[in-house]
Amino acid sequence: MDATDEYASLWKHAVEKFEKNHGQKLPQYTEATRDRTPDDILTEAGDKFTKFRDNGKILRSAVKPCMDSVSRLSEVLGQTLQLVYPPAQAITAAVVVFIKVVMIFITFSHLTIIALMRVHSKGCEQVSTNYDAMEDLLDNYQHILERTETLARLKPSDNLKRLIVDILVQFLNVVDLAVNAVKSGRRRAFFKSLVFKKDTKIEKALGEVEKLLRREEASVNLAILTKTHAVQESTERHYSAVSSTTIHRWLNPINQIEKYEEVLRQRSEGTCQWFLEDQTFSNWKEKPNSRLWFHGKMGAGKTMIRYVKTLAIKKKIGLKNFSTTAIENLSRLPGLVAYYYFQFDQKETLSEHSLIRSLLAQLKTINSTPLKTLHKALDGATQPSISQLQKALEQIVSSAKCPIYIVIDALDEYVQRVDHVYPERDQPLLSLLGETVSWNAPNLHMMVTSRDEPGIEKVIKKAGFMDIKVSTPSIDKDIALYVKAELSKDKWRQWDLSLREKVQERMLKKGNGMFRLVVSHFELLEQAGTDEDVEWFVENLPDTLRQT
């Protein structure tokens, strides 16, 4: 038997029990009252007893709300629970039976009072007390029905549906007992006991109702909490997804992945190992709120070194193309990396706005509240100022619970771009680098790479950056690895071994600690068509990047 059949069976049994107890078919009363409102029924019944109009009004005021609630409840339950007898019809019919019996009881009481008043002055008080009992009973159940109606409209769970049916069955049971009590009270001297207040069966039935209500309240509270939590989670997920996309479009950051992949393709395996093993680099990783400046002369390969370092740090985020040394060095280091490349040949990258927007876009998953708040304050239309962006960045990195690594590549290219606009002391990004020292951001680790520039060095030293200077011997080791790897490629294997050895020797001699210069040498050699051309190029390799 499924749940719906079970509910219908319970309700049908309750209706049939009432009909058997009172020898009356509830549908018969239903047919007679179907097109009339509860108000019509009560008015007709009350008018028959004009002598007790005042008390009749009191009783009517108690009965009518119950019948109204049951009528409304039926509209909901007819679809929700699919009961055999629509509750409004069956219960209204039962209440009509109750009213008729009560009115007969009132008539009997009236005749009894006339006799009692001759021998006992408290006769009228007894009738009034019984009215109060009837009114209390119906007021109590009015509250129950209103609550049940509300539950039924909320698409209740199976447990709540069962409770609703149980409450309705119990209501019919109370009406049944009330009818019996009135009949019993009519047959005996009614003043010997109060009809309802002394009836243990009705008290027990009402006690069952109270138990049902306590179960219902607990079930409803649990259902409300469950649904509220589910709705809240759904709303937050939706809001978060929409906000993340909207804010990313609003920030409109320059894509850094393309540059990242370009540099990664150029990296030769084994290069930059010396940098990862440097003690200063290790100290920078461990020290809270630390800054590191990696610097050297033009063409020394800072971008290549910076990239190997970034790969190592990002190992925990799934990037795998980095050397074994880097994996071993940073495998125990969780964290998040945000990076930015200044590129002198791409002017859109050479602004502090572009830098901070890109960093915010990469770090917003840590704490999106500052950006959401700023976006809302500006109505999502006005673009934020550099100070507003800077403040949001500070709030995000300060709230981070894991290490945050910010790596800014080629700061000198930014400085060259803005040098003719800002005096050295007023360059916004250099000012920002100095101000980050005062941020309460223990998990922040910032690294900047650049050529040796007096303006940059002044700000860096004042801000207390650690520094690693690129040394020629260290770069020469990387250049040797790069040249060996390059000459092993198929496109150079057409040369004789002796010629390749000569190229390697000249490359290492001409490199002079400038990684980029050696890369340019290979680009020139690609233009050579014959061995004689190669010989000539090798003898006349440029000594500087400017000559290339």
TrEMBL record:
Transmembrane domains' residue ranges: 90-116
Organism superkingdom: Eukaryota
Name of the protein in its database record: Uncharacterized protein
Keywords, alphabetical: Membrane, Repeat, Transmembrane, Transmembrane helix
Segments forming domain Fungal STAND N-terminal Goodbye: 11-102
Record has Lipid biosynthesis as a keyword: no
Lineage, opening ranks: Eukaryota, Fungi, Dikarya, Basidiomycota, Agaricomycotina
Annotated Nephrocystin 3-like N-terminal domain residues: 270-451
Pfam family, one: NPHP3_N
